[in-house]
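Table S2 (continued). Query chain:
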Amino acid sequence: MSDLETVDGEKQEEHRLAETPRRSSFQIGGLAGLIIGLLAALSACVGGPLLLALTAMLSDGALDGATIQQSLALTVLGLGIGGILAWEGWRIWQNRPSRPFVPRRLGLLWLALGLLLALGLLFSLLDAGLPYLLPPVNTLTVILLPLLLLLTVGQAARGYGGSWRDVAGGLVSGAALGTGLALFLEIALASAFVVLALLLGVIPGGIAGLQALSERLQDPAFLNDPQNLLQFVSPLTVLTLFLFVAVLAPLVEELTKTAGLAVAAPWLRPTPARAFVLGVASGAGFAIAENLFNGALIGAFWAPGVVLRLGATLMHCATSGLMGWGWGQLWSERRPWQAVLAFLGAMGLHSAWNGLAVGVAVSGVLAIGQGDNPIVMAFLGLLILSFLAILALLALATFVGLIWSGRVLGQRAEGL
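Corresponding output:
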């Protein structure tokens, strides 16, 4: 072979390599997401049924609604997170763009939610069907609640809230990263509270007393009798509960729910509308995970439990939307003071909601112990109704504020 032919061959090879599309780092990341998603979905398919089988073996085949609910929660959440990661990872690997987030035809989903609520109410009144009928209905209901809220906000933003891929990423981030970080930090804080209580001698019996208390709190029969909760109601207990639930938990969750967006925002440089919808998506993902594991009650109190979860879902989506907007103002508009105000607003709304919920719970427990005192009973009943009325007004204002914010931000983006 002559030198000329060799040079021509090398040039042809260089030309062929130049025409071959190279995978970008973004596409490589998509491949990693695909693999991780498939592994997560596979783990969920194995872990959920395995949990149910092990529980059945240890309880001689007796399964209650709570056990089935936990197994369903583990399976469905893992499949959802893994499925989204795998699907979007594959599309990124194939270099396929994502359409603007413009939800349509939500009427059928609202109708489905109404049907699920009716079925859940019916099954909650049928004791024979509780273990097997209510958990699937409950699972679908508490997932559909946040998704419908997110879709409604996206519809109000009219396509200026990012893409479907953005929203999928927000959901996964809130459900996995946000929930995981919040759970870890809250467990650490709760452990610190327990250690401090032991050192101060607040817990009767010390470590032995704490172990006995833990065993009783894990007994469903003990928790189903409200009279047993009266022994825990004291000024110190109520103050500690309020401090943890209405101050520390909101602080932790508002910093973790949008952690994924906080990391991605310097790179994304999102517009206010996009940052807001991404925050709402993160809150919806967090609410789905929380609803599945701590959500509605499997029993006769299922309907009130779902109503409370609806309010908590509104709160999570609103505060995360506000935090998302704050991150956008920090990284896109270079306005750190607006990010601080967004955090304070999200923290305030979250604390108010949790504080009112604590008020309802404590007043309800106190009312149980005042059956022989009608005057105090009436006062506590009025207090409970007042707390519930404020919660209802707060939930309504939050829903209106979410839709209004999505619409206004979308209109501003359209006018740019």
